[in-house]
Amino acid sequence: MLFALWIQSQGDWRLGLPWERSLLLSLDRTVPSGFDWIMLSLPWLGTSLTLLPIVAVFSLWVWRKKGRGDIALQLMIVAVGSLVMNAVLKDVFNRPRPDLWPHRGQFAWTSYPSGHAIVGVAIYFTVARLLHRERGWWWPFVVSAVMLAINLYSRMYLGVHWPTDVIGGALLGLTWLIVVDYAFRPVARTTAAGSASAPAAPIRVSSADVHI
Question: pTM score, two decimals?
């Protein structure tokens, strides 16, 4: 919200700041059809409307089949929180989308902040952190970074977001990622201790284990 207020103080953000308009107009849109198809298709994996059902089903499976209510709860809080904050801020600021060329691809509501940016940082990297913690894998961070870069570029390439929408969404996603990760650190320590002493025992999570 502070970032949005600062951007508003720089000029008429409803029409885009001068440097934003220049940046969008400088993007090369005469690209091969394969590249254009990626820009249109991949963002469907970067929106809460698509990811929330996937996260919900996976969280239910992890909880019921693996006894990992801690992972299920963390994923659901990140996903639902991302969607709610995106919707609230879009309603509060009500910034029009760019008018430089016809909008394409998946988009909903108003322009600020970019929901794809929020989700790309918060959900992708929460999953990457959990996989690294549980399996020791580093490759999910690489995949997350590549997916995030494509999604963020596509929002401007498709003409549905101003650059500051993307920056604001990324800042919010990073903040939410850090807050939820901090809240679940005691749970992670409990899980690690429980796994060391009794690997087969499911971890039960209570509200007292989470920083509020």
Answer: 0.83
